[in-house]
């Protein structure tokens, strides 16, 4: 490495044309002498002699001592020649030299334009007066303004709100500031350009963030949608977390859990509930659970089985009567509504209630008050009403058999309990539940239900629903003597096996043991309907009215 100190004499300092001339000469010498030349200013900044902007930015002034350095094959000659050049007046000798300087400058300008335009960030350069000197292609795209329009204009008029004037005045840069340029959101760095601590201009480098903002907005929408979905899922799980009062209700099928979720929610309110479902699906069980899960749990739960009470007595049963209100009314009687005060009244099989009573019930629902039969004192009660039916109330309303206004008053929270054949997956759970519960209650140690027996139960349709299943398990526990329930312990219509005494009604249980009366009754009605096809024909043979046949058939879920 060769090194030499020279005195820079050019009166105008190292201006851009002088620098271009040095660059052009350095190129020639390097080529000819196979060397590399460098220039170092007084402050120790060293740059290649062929880099125009770098050389220019050394800001060499007249009288500055500068160092020339050279390496390569003929570094000594290169050093000597270049040093002499620097000490000279740096003016072009002829037109040819002038042309070469021009082309260096043009080439350099073109190169910087190409570089600036290939940057994807917007770039605006202003001078100390805030006049735009550079406006690259990305700046054109982001601001929607053309370079031709921008260059030479004051940036504060062109793009108000950039904040560049503060930078020009204060000299401190600002970084990653969110701004709006001509309606477009951008993130901008504002940097002053200083030479010898003097601000000679400023640069704004900025990126369009409208796409990012849109993505963020979409993300936010998406996140909100996810949050909403999570919330709903949580709600669903929460709603399926039932009060302990529902523990007694066995079953995991979706349909049952959905019904219980509604019931559980209804328990938290005082709304009237209407439980729908075939006979034996657990309507009373659910009504009790709603009561027990409600704030009224310490109050009474009063059940009224509407069809079991003759219609003539139902009014006094519900509302009570005064002494002497009718023949046989020897004492004052408190009705079920009064008894249920502060608690819940469960009106089972409401579809069987006569129209007169429906009207009276409607008044209680509307006004929460009534009079005892034969009395004139108005009694106010605070009673929550839960009604249940296995009848098609809508059809009854259409036929004029059930008051429409009462229907709407009752149907505030409808709960539909599925039949057992709609939730067959619950049969094993229920069967095991009843085996355990009933064998304990009956003092028998029945520990298993054989897979064969379970299979038979799974294939049966259970018209009498859970109640029928419960009865069948009870019966089987009574029949078995080896601690397990097998197909032989099931009735033949479930096991598919003809019992040895088939044809003899009394031997339903197959071993001469008697069964509960209702089972005989159900079997008789089932057989009669199967054989005679109509209520009338069956009733004639059985010697009872067709109404009774119809009522029993409904009771046992045979229609
Ligand atoms: N999911 C269940 N889990 C456990 N036991 C049940 C279930 N469903 C019903 N039961 C039992 O089945 C029997 C019949 O239930 P419940 O009396 O509540 O039915 P229901 O629908 O009110 O019948 P009906 O319409 O004939 O009055 C009861 O012994 C009840 O305990």
UniProtKB/TrEMBL annotation:
<dbReference type="Pfam" id="PF00381">
    <property type="entry name" value="PTS-HPr"/>
</dbReference>
<feature type="domain" description="PAS">
    <location>
        <begin position="115"/>
        <end position="160"/>
    </location>
</feature>
<dbReference type="InterPro" id="IPR009057">
    <property type="entry name" value="Homeodomain-like_sf"/>
</dbReference>
<dbReference type="InterPro" id="IPR025943">
    <property type="entry name" value="Sigma_54_int_dom_ATP-bd_2"/>
</dbReference>
<dbReference type="InterPro" id="IPR002078">
    <property type="entry name" value="Sigma_54_int"/>
</dbReference>
<dbReference type="GO" id="GO:0005524">
    <property type="term" value="F:ATP binding"/>
</dbReference>
<keyword id="KW-0238">DNA-binding</keyword>
<dbReference type="InterPro" id="IPR058031">
    <property type="entry name" value="AAA_lid_NorR"/>
</dbReference>
<dbReference type="InterPro" id="IPR025944">
    <property type="entry name" value="Sigma_54_int_dom_CS"/>
</dbReference>
<dbReference type="InterPro" id="IPR003593">
    <property type="entry name" value="AAA+_ATPase"/>
</dbReference>
<dbReference type="Pfam" id="PF00158">
    <property type="entry name" value="Sigma54_activat"/>
</dbReference>
<dbReference type="Pfam" id="PF13426">
    <property type="entry name" value="PAS_9"/>
</dbReference>
<dbReference type="GO" id="GO:0006355">
    <property type="term" value="P:regulation of DNA-templated transcription"/>
</dbReference>
<dbReference type="InterPro" id="IPR027417">
    <property type="entry name" value="P-loop_NTPase"/>
</dbReference>
<dbReference type="InterPro" id="IPR000014">
    <property type="entry name" value="PAS"/>
</dbReference>
<keyword id="KW-0547">Nucleotide-binding</keyword>
<dbReference type="InterPro" id="IPR035965">
    <property type="entry name" value="PAS-like_dom_sf"/>
</dbReference>
<keyword id="KW-0804">Transcription</keyword>
<dbReference type="InterPro" id="IPR030828">
    <property type="entry name" value="HTH_TyrR"/>
</dbReference>
<dbReference type="Pfam" id="PF18024">
    <property type="entry name" value="HTH_50"/>
</dbReference>
<keyword id="KW-0010">Activator</keyword>
<dbReference type="GO" id="GO:0003677">
    <property type="term" value="F:DNA binding"/>
</dbReference>
<feature type="domain" description="HPr">
    <location>
        <begin position="1"/>
        <end position="98"/>
    </location>
</feature>
<feature type="domain" description="Sigma-54 factor interaction">
    <location>
        <begin position="249"/>
        <end position="478"/>
    </location>
</feature>
<dbReference type="InterPro" id="IPR035895">
    <property type="entry name" value="HPr-like_sf"/>
</dbReference>
<keyword id="KW-0067">ATP-binding</keyword>
<dbReference type="InterPro" id="IPR000032">
    <property type="entry name" value="HPr-like"/>
</dbReference>
<keyword id="KW-0805">Transcription regulation</keyword>
<dbReference type="Pfam" id="PF25601">
    <property type="entry name" value="AAA_lid_14"/>
</dbReference>
<dbReference type="InterPro" id="IPR025662">
    <property type="entry name" value="Sigma_54_int_dom_ATP-bd_1"/>
</dbReference>
<protein>
    <recommendedName>
        <fullName>HTH-type transcriptional regulatory protein TyrR</fullName>
    </recommendedName>
</protein>
<keyword id="KW-0058">Aromatic hydrocarbons catabolism</keyword>
């Amino acid at each position: 490495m060769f090194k030499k100190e020279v005195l820079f004499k050019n009166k105008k300092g190292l201006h851009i044309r002088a620098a271009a001339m040095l660059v052009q000469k350095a190129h020639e010498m390097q080529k000819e002498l196979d060397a590399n030349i460098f220039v170092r200013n007084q402050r120790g900044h060293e740059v290649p002699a062929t880099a125009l902007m770098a050389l220019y930015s050394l800001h060499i002034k007249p009288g500055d001592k500068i160092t020339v350095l050279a390496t390569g094959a003929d570094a000594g000659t290169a050093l000597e020649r270049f040093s002499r050049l620097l000490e000279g007046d740096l003016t072009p000798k002829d037109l040819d030299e002038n042309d070469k300087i021009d082309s260096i400058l043009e080439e350099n300008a073109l190169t910087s334009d190409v570089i600036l335009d290939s940057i994807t960030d917007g770039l605006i350069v202003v001078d100390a007066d805030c006049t735009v000197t550079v406006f690259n292609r990305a700046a054109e795209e982001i601001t929607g303004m053309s370079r031709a329009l921008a260059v030479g204009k004051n940036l504060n008029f062109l793009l108000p709100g950039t904040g560049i004037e503060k930078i020009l005045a204060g000299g401190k840069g600002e970084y990653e500031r969110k701004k709006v340029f001509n309606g477009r959101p951008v993130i901008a760095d504002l940097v002053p350009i200083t030479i010898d601590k003097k601000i000679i201009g400023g640069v704004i480098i900025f990126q369009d963030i409208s796409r990012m903002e849109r993505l963020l907005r979409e993300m936010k929408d998406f996140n909100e949608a996810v949050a909403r979905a999570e919330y709903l899922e949580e709600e669903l799980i929460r709603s399926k977390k039932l009060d302990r009062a529902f523990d007694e209700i066995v079953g995991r099928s979706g349909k049952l859990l959905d019904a219980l979720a509604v019931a559980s929610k209804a328990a938290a309110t005082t709304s009237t509930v209407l439980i729908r479902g075939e006979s034996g699906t657990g309507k009373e069980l659910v009504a009790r659970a709603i009561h027990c899960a409600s704030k009224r749990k310490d109050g009474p739960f009063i059940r009224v089985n509407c069809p079991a009470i003759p219609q003539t007595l139902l009014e006094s049963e519900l509302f009570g009567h005064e002494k002497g209100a009718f023949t046989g009314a020897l004492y004052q009687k408190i009705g079920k509504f009064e008894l249920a005060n502060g608690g819940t009244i469960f009106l089972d099989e409401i579809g069987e209630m006569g129209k007169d009573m429906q009207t009276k019930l409607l008044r209680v629902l509307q006004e929460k008050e009534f009079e005892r039969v034969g009395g004139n004192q108005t009694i106010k009660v605070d009673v929550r009403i839960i009604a249940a039916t296995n009848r098609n109330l809508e059809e009854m309303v259409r036929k004029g058999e059930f008051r429409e206004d009462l229907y709407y008053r009752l149907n505030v929270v409808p709960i539909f309990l599925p039949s057992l054949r709609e939730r067959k997956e619950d049969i094993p759970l229920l069967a095991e539940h009843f085996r355990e519960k009933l064998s304990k209650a009956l003092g028998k140690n029945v520990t298993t239900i054989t897979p064969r027996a379970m299979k038979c139960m799974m294939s049966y349709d259970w018209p009498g629903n859970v109640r029928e299943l419960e009865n069948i398990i009870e019966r089987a526990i009574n029949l078995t003597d080896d601690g397990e329930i097998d197909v032989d312990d099931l009735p033949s219509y479930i096991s598919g096996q003809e019992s040895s005494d088939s044809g003899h009604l009394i031997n339903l249980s197959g071993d001469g043991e008697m069964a509960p009366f209702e089972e005989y009754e159900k079997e008789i009605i089932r057989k009669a309907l199967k054989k005679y096809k109509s209520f009338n024909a069956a009733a004639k043979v059985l010697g009872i009215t067709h109404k009774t046949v119809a009522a029993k058939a409904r009771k046992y879920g045979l229609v």
